[in-house]
Amino acid sequence: VHGGDMEDHKNSQRHWIKDIGPSVETNIGFIESYLDPSKTRAEWEGFVACVDKVQSKKLNDLVSNAEILISKLPWDKAFEKDKFHRPDFTSLEIITFACSGTPVGINIPNYDEIRQNEGYKNVNLGNVYPVPTINTMLFLSQQDKELMFKHYKTSLFLIVALHELLGHGTGKLFQKLESGKFNFDSNTVKNPFTNEEIKTFYDVNQTWHSKFGEISDGYEECRADCVALYLGCFDESMDVLFPELSKEEREEVLYAAWVECCWAGIKALMFYSPDAKSWQQAHMNANYCILKVCLEAGDDFVRVEKTTGSDGKPDILLTLDRTKIHSHGKKAIGDFLHRIHVYKSISDVEEGGKFWNRYSEVDEFMTSLRQIVVDRRLPRRLELQHDLEIVGAVSYTHLRAHETPEHLVCRLLLEKKK
Questions:
Q1: Which of 13, 85, 159, 359 could be 119's S-S partner, Cβ–Cβ 3.0 to 4.6 Å?
Q2: Is 221 a catalytic residue?
Q3: pTM of this structure
Q4: pLDDT tens digit sequence for 20-48
């Protein structure tokens, strides 16, 4: 890794995924390519964290039940990996994370050949979850604000757990091997949308990112979020992740998760450039596509309306009919997920690209909403990481956490200079 050789880094990741269940977790290297327009150069990052054993037990139970949940996904088994490599899945409490933006969950390594054939690790970063306040929850009814505040951590845990393990962790890439053979049966496997033989695939040395290019990151994040929303509708997911909750509480958590993803689609408009007609951030593009899918589900499952705020200025109200999540939402997301998954599997860049761009398009109405989002934008969230300090004569290490970063940032910077 020190010399910059990619093969060295790949080998380090092979060793890393074999280190199962450590009490202290760490990784370093060029990991995510979100900031590179060509999706080729990755950003250098590294983290150190300790394991939350209580939450990790739930995630390990989810891994144990993964094959059951995978069988419920809306595609034929031919489009799933031949073997599910059970990863190490832990919930971490971050001590320090050096990067441009701390994620709430990670599924790495990002090398396709390792993920497909050797395995990967999932981590949930529990203490990175942003803590909302009702005053900063724009574009929602008061009732939804209160429910989202009540369940923000459990609903996000539901999304992150399913997103990382069964979103990024599923799906077969149809490949031509160096031997000239294929890793799928070209005689029997058909395109489910045309009923024709598979005509596209990944050639030797081609990867998901190299084929789908600039849309690949947003596309994959959307696929993983859709998996989370879809599988969240099954009792088997809730039984594993929230055994302590009642049926009514589980329904509230599921509702909060669906609202969270659609609400994120409204806020995502901030990251759309009307002049360039392009998305500036992959996750935001993904969130917006999910909102569009839910709006198309029909029967007012999801509604987005222009309103007038209490300040007399233009505002937005997002509503979601919780009684239609299982009947309308699940079907709409499932149908959409099926298509983007298969297009990715068979490397159908032409059809997959057209389908993706249709949902990424921001029409005149959405553009008008964007201006409201921009006009009502809040100050950028400050992120303040924990401090480790040596305490007392016995020199034990103490983790100092900070609840409200706004008034502590300057003081802590001054302390560090001393």
A1: 85
A2: no
A3: 0.86
A4: 888 899 999 888 887 777 767 888 899 99
